[in-house]
Design brief:
Elements lengths: L12 H4 L14 E8 L3 H12 L4 E4 L15 E2 L7 H33 L7 E8 L2 H18 L4 E5 H7 L7 E10 L2 H14 L3 E3 L4 E8 L2 E6 L3 E9 L10 H4 L7 E10 L4 H7 L5 E4 L5 E5 L5 E6 L6 H12 L8 E11 L6 E5 L3 E5 L5 H16 L4 H7 L9 H22 L1
Parallel strand pairs: 1-2, 1-10, 2-7, 4-12, 10-17
Antiparallel strand pairs: 3-6, 4-6, 5-6, 8-9, 9-10, 11-14, 11-15, 12-13, 13-14, 16-17
The structure holds flavin-adenine dinucleotide.
Length: 432
């Protein structure tokens, strides 16, 4: 039994402020569709929505409930670009394809805007995002990022802030400066996810909850049988939108793509709502913030002025206490503030932080490994997979050219990699 199957949403700030309870049925009769999608997070629902808009019949199978995974509990930061430096992309793909990828990452943000407007999704979407540097070495990385994005891509939304400029908007003494991007933004991820699901349902997509897929049978290039415990879907195409949960599935379901994913736990706490003056003493311009360490802190204010503070952390023990200390390190002025929520989940990292999208066989597609950029990139993934299913794989093929290393040896090796890798990267964060 998959441990996430049949689960309800974790108790989080997001689940306590969700716009609706969808409650879709379990799959109990045979279905036939053009496309079957496994996973009802951003990736699965974005793909379903794009396909439904193009007139395809779609069934989405979700093992737990819509937005149960990372999409319903993340930091909500929709950031353009990719996790790794642009030089590696230039070396690997050359200028033209790198420019295309960059433009697609901007399209990813526009997709959020379009969907919110088109389907009237209430999810507290706000633009404005800062990458904050903890030391001069990290600041140099930001100066370089600003230079390359303007010279190579002609991108003009970024501003470099020195310590004094940063302190006008961010009430922390910790940083030496930052890079502000007025295009990226943040949202209430669970409400965005539920909004996508409602848009899908309105277009005739069938979404089944509590329907974990336990087997997949490739019958031919145009026929696949996707089985749950109670029934099955016959489809012409299959999309794997299982994200970090891919690790828990059998190879027959994931076709080998699990070896590309290293699930890294990340945690978030939410404070009580802050009085306006205290909230302004933290962030006064509505932006979300992330530092540029390898193991990073990310945070923003919610619509009701709670600080949502996240970190990639090394332990599962007393996470709320650990996270509170992390928060107070950045914002000592919050010493007397109550913590109302704490939760965590696995982030879908790849070993080189490059996204992993592609096509397996003639009729199986996947998108995973967003490496911290999934809020934005998952919408793009849905669009380009739907294009490929409808006959134009040009944009998907650019992503397929990115090399993503495999981690062989299964879950034990992944655990070891994390145990050994974390202290090493923490040391890099401290000294470089
Ligand atoms: C704590 C945390 C903070 C994060 N913060 C950010 C952030 O601020 N910005 C950002 O860009 N990214 C962030 N991320 C990452 C981001 O949330 C993900 O990249 C993104 O949500 C991936 O969406 P998805 O639809 O691919 O996966 P998910 O939302 O995880 O959906 C996968 C779904 O597949 C289902 N599933 C899996 N296997 C099966 C099966 N066999 N049968 C049926 N269903 C199955 C699961 O139940 C799950 O609902 C964060 C992640 C976490 C955990």
């Amino acid at each position: 039994m998959l441990d996430f199957a049949f689960q309800k949403h974790l108790k989080t700030y997001y689940s306590d402020t969700m716009n609706c309870h969808l409650q879709q049925a379990q799959l109990s009769q045979m279905e036939t569709a053009d496309v079957c999608i496994i996973g009802a997070g951003f990736t699965g629902l974005s793909t379903a929505l794009e396909l439904a808009e193009k007139g395809k019949s779609v069934v989405v199978l979700e093992g737990a409930c819509v937005g149960f995974g990372a999409s319903g509990r993340n930091g909500g930061q929709a950031i353009n670009g990719f996790e790794d430096g642009i030089d590696e992309y230039l070396q690997e793909l050359g200028l033209k394809a790198t420019q295309q990828l960059w433009n697609m990452s901007l399209e990813a943000i526009d997709i959020i805007d379009e969907r919110i407007e088109k389907y009237a999704i209430q999810c507290d979407w706000k633009r404005g995002y800062l990458t904050a540097a903890l030391n001069e070495r990290r600041m140099e990385d930001l100066i370089y990022a600003k230079q390359t994005s303007s010279t190579i891509f002609g991108y003009s939304h970024m501003q470099l802030w020195d310590k004094a400029q940063l302190k006008r908007h961010l009430g922390s003494d910790l940083y030496v400066g930052g890079l502000y991007d007025g295009n990226s933004g943040h949202l209430h991820p669970l409400n965005y996810c539920l909004g996508l699901a409602q848009a899908c349902l309105a277009l005739g997509v069938k979404i089944y909850e509590n329907s974990p897929v336990i087997d997949v049978e490739l019958i031919s290039d145009t026929k696949i049988k996707i089985k749950t415990a109670k029934s099955a879907v016959n489809a012409a195409h299959l999309v794997l939108a299982t994200n970090a949960y891919v690790d828990k599935l059998s190879k027959k379901i994931h076709f080998g793509i699990a070896k590309k994913i290293l699930p890294v736990e990340s945690f978030i706490i939410a404070t009580e709502p802050l009085p306006q003056a205290l909230a302004d003493s933290v962030i006064n311009n509505g932006m979300s913030v992330c530092d540029n360490n390898i193991f990073l802190d990310y945070y923003r204010l919610s619509a009701d002025n709670r600080l949502l503070f996240g970190s990639d952390s090394s332990s599962n023990k007393n996470m709320v206490d650990v996270m509170r200390q992390n928060m107070l390190h950045v914002f000592p002025q919050l010493e007397s503030v109550r913590i109302d929520y704490g939760w965590g989940g696995p982030v879908d990292m790849t070993l080189n932080a490059k996204p992993h999208f592609g096509q397996l066989h003639n009729n199986v597609y996947f998108a995973q490994g967003y490496s911290g950029h999934g809020v934005a990139l998952s919408g793009l993934a849905g669009r380009i997979i739907s294009e490929a299913i409808c006959g134009d794989a040009t944009r998907l093929q650019i992503f397929e050219r990115l090399k993503v290393p495999s981690l062989y040896g299964g879950k034990l090796v992944k655990k070891l990699a994390l145990a050994v890798g974390k202290p090493y990267y923490r040391m890099l964060d401290r000294f470089f």
